[in-house]
Amino acid sequence: MRGHAVEDDQMLQQVADFRAEAEELQTLLATLKDQDWQRPTSFKSWTVNDVVQHLHASVLMASASVAGAEPFARFRDEIQTARENGMTRLEETRQRLGDLTAGRLLERWHQQMVALCDRLSGLPADTRLKWAGPDMGVRMFTTARQMETWAHGQSIYDLVRKPRQPTGRLRNIAELGVRTYGWTFFNRAIEQPGPAPFVGLRGPSGEVWEWNPPAGESNVTGSALDFCQVVTQVRNVADTALQVTGEPARRWMNIAQCFAGPPEDPPLPGARLIPAS
């Protein structure tokens, strides 16, 4: 029984971390003027409104998954039908959410995010949930929602040149990044180049986080912030101070992708590098 209690506590912490990530982004968004929501970010030139609509649609999709296999399948079928009709992901989201913009969008996204967190908190720790890629346990599912919020939120922080203080919540995203080493290659139909590299990261408060046994010359070391930026494709690895040694580690960091969906290429070196002010 004690083991189950520990698992439940861990799951609840991940829900709390997801909510805290979203609340932090909401605080920034609440400072924007209406015209700021139409400014293009460095992420595929999506506007701030596009980014938040995408996050809102993702919350709706996650809520459908929590509701059960059938609601999720209906949601996915709607997306697939739109894609077969030639719509891009962004166009499908715009069609789904219509004229939901700026303050109204922020309010609706926040309400749905809170409701999703409440639902996730009530699930047994061994629950598995459907998603665009492989099914996920509820803890990783929740971390993936946090990761998406953090990664897409960075494009808004970059746009408005606001400093963003890294937190211990990055550990969840780093964990997801490490776990998706194999997925990065499988998703591209590329043979895995070797065992998962040793990963040693320095957290925001100076603590050291480590994964995988030492793998000889295959290692990724440096700051947790840099690693999370690379695996979420917020930055190109060349624009970070990560130390990457060994062929498996180098090949991984050049195409790392910790999120579901078709293969995506990282930004080109320098494309999203924000110079120090």
Characteristic terms for this protein:
single chain, 277 residues, alpha+beta, four-stranded mixed beta sheet, two-stranded antiparallel ribbon, 10 helices, 8% strand, globular
Describe the protein's architecture and organization.
The protein has ten helices and six strands; from the N terminus they run H-H-H-H-H-E-E-H-H-H-E-E-E-H-E-H. The relative contact order is 0.12. A hairpin with a 6-residue loop joins strand 1 (128-129) and strand 2. Strands 4-3-5-6 form a four-stranded mixed β-sheet. Strands 1-2 form a two-stranded antiparallel sheet. With 277 residues, the chain is α+β, with helices and mostly antiparallel strands.
Secondary-structure map:
Blueprint: H1 2-29, H2 48-67, H3 69-84, H4 89-97, H5 102-121, E1 128-129, E2 136-137, H6 138-160, H7 170-179, H8 181-186, E3 198-202, E4 208-211, E5 219-223, H9 224-231, E6 243-245, H10 247-255
In short:
The chain is α+β, with helices and mostly antiparallel strands and 277 residues long. The protein has helices spanning 2-29, 48-67, 69-84, 89-97, 102-121, 138-160, 170-179, 181-186, 224-231, 247-255; strands at residues 128-129, 136-137, 198-202, 208-211, 219-223, 243-245. Helix 1 runs antiparallel to helix 5 (102-121).
The number of helices is 10
Mean pLDDT across the residues is: 92
Strand pairing plus helix content: what structural class?
A: alpha+beta
Strand content: 5-15%
Estimate the helix proportion, in percent. Answer: 40-55%
Largest sheet: 4 strands, mixed
Task: Give the total of beta strands.
Answer: 6
Question: Main sheet: which strands, in order across?
Answer: 4-3-5-6
Overall spatial form = globular
Low-confidence stretches: 1-8
- Secondary-structure element order, as H and E? HHHHHEEHHHEEEHEH
| Cα separation of the termini | 53 Å
| Rg over CA atoms | 19 Å
